[in-house]
Amino acid sequence: MADATLQLCSFQLADALFGLDTMLVQEIIKVPEITKVYQAPEEIIGIINLRGKIVTIIDLAIKLDLPTEVETNNRRIIIVESHNEPFGLMVDSINDVIHINSDDLGPAPANVSITQGRFITGVFRDEEQLIAILNIEEIVSLTENKTD
Q: What is the tens place of the pLDDT at every residue in 120-148?
């Protein structure tokens, strides 16, 4: 059986490095003007109009319970689609597209919080870095019954 190669779009959130399968990424855009959505969950920053489509913007740092960074010129929005609905994932910066062998993926570490653990499908570790691979379906599932 041949080894499957996975391409990951890697990006930074706070001090952590994350990856997303490039097959799930439609495009990466600079942060445009975002319209606030009132009474939305905390992680929903708002919406944008992207070429006639309304796109919900999720702040991944808030969703993953990570420290939110100050606004920088490096912030980007990764556009993904789930159930025929576009979503934008706000990240601190985009790194590289990396190619990994799917056999090199490991399970999420046991010390990851339960909240974060459900958002991570696995991790990739090499001699230089640890990249958490995101579960996009869990990320975009809006938790309306979230308690404060």
A: 888 888 777 888 899 888 888 754 444 33
What whole-number distance in Å separates Cα of residue 61 and Cα of residue 124?
Answer: 20
pTM score over 0.90: no
Give the CATH superfamily of 5-140.
Answer: CheA-289, Domain 4 (2.40.50.180)
Name the burial class of residue 54, with classes exposed (0-12), middle (13-18) and buried (19+) by CB atoms within 10 angstroms of its CB. Answer: exposed
10 Cβ neighbours under 8 A, 6+ residues apart: 17, 18, 19, 94, 95, 96, 97, 98, 131
Place 69 in a pLDDT band, splitting at 50, 70 and 90: low
* Per-domain boundaries in the chain: 5-140
**CA 129 to CA 39: how far, in whole Å?**
38
> In whole angstroms, how far apart are CA 31 and each of 20, 93, 138?
19, 11, 23
Cα dihedral: 96, 34, 63, 120 (round 10): -30
